[in-house]
């Protein structure tokens, strides 16, 4: 988790389910608890045009 992440409180069971869906089912890199700035940079760097968050 990024030290700048606004996500300080979370439900562990929800995190486990999210990991299961993204990693085990979809087989993608799991990107949890990143800041909006980090996500924007990642998407824009991949060629996406951010319309609204």
Radius of gyration: 13 Å
Could you list the spans in which at least 5 consecutive residues all have pLDDT below 50?
A: none
Count of β-strands: 0
Kindly report the average pLDDT value: 78
Distance between the termini: 20 Å
Description:
This protein is mainly α and 53 residues long. The protein has one domain. The chain is 45% helix and 0% strand.
Throw out a few tags for this protein.
53 residues, mainly alpha, 2 helices
Topology at a glance:
Elements: H1 12-25, H2 36-45
Question: How is this structure best summarized?
Answer:
With 53 residues, this protein is mainly alpha-helical. It has 2 helices and no strands. It starts with 11 loop residues before the first helix and ends in an 8-residue tail after the last helix.
């Amino acid at each position: 988790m990024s030290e700048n992440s606004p996500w300080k409180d979370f439900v562990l069971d929800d995190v486990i389910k999210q990991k299961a869906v993204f990693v085990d089912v979809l087989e993608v890199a799991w990107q949890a608890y990143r800041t909006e700035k980090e996500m924007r940079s990642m998407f824009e760097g991949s060629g996406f045009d951010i319309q609204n968050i």
